[in-house]
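A quick aside before the break. I want you to see a complete sequence-to-structure record at least once, exactly as it would be stored in a machine-readable document. Don't worry about memorizing anything.
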Amino acid sequence: MRLAFGRIKVYSKLTLIVLVMIAIGVVLWKNRDHQVNIWFFGLVHKETSINVIWVMLYTALGALVSYWVLSLVRGLWKDVRKAANESALREKEKRQQERAKELQEQEKRIDAKLKKAISDK
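That is the input. The structure line, written in C-alpha cells, reads:
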C-alpha cells in the first residue's frame, strides 16, 4: 500500500511539472512576436522595442536573484540575533558567577563571626 501511495505521489508531481512546463511553453509561444517599449530608469530609449520574452526572462531572473539576496539577509539576521543572545547569556552567566563568589565570601565572613562569637563565650 505504501508503494502505491509513493507511485501516486511521484506521478502526480511529474504531471504537475509537465503541466507547468506546457503552460510556460504556451506563454512563450503566444508572446514570441510581441514587442514592448520599456522604461528602466532611462537606460532604454522609448524608441527601442524589446521582445516580451526577454522582458519576462529578465523579470524571472530578477525575482530569483532578489529571493537569493533576501534569503542571505534573513540568514544574516538570524546569525546576528543568535550572536546577541549568546553574548547576553554569557554576560548573565558571568554575573551569576560573580554573585556566587560574593555569596561565598559573605558566608565565610558569617561563619568566622559565628566561630569567634562561640569561642568568646
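Two observations worth writing down. The mean pLDDT is 91. The longest helix spans residues 52-120. We'll return to this after the break.
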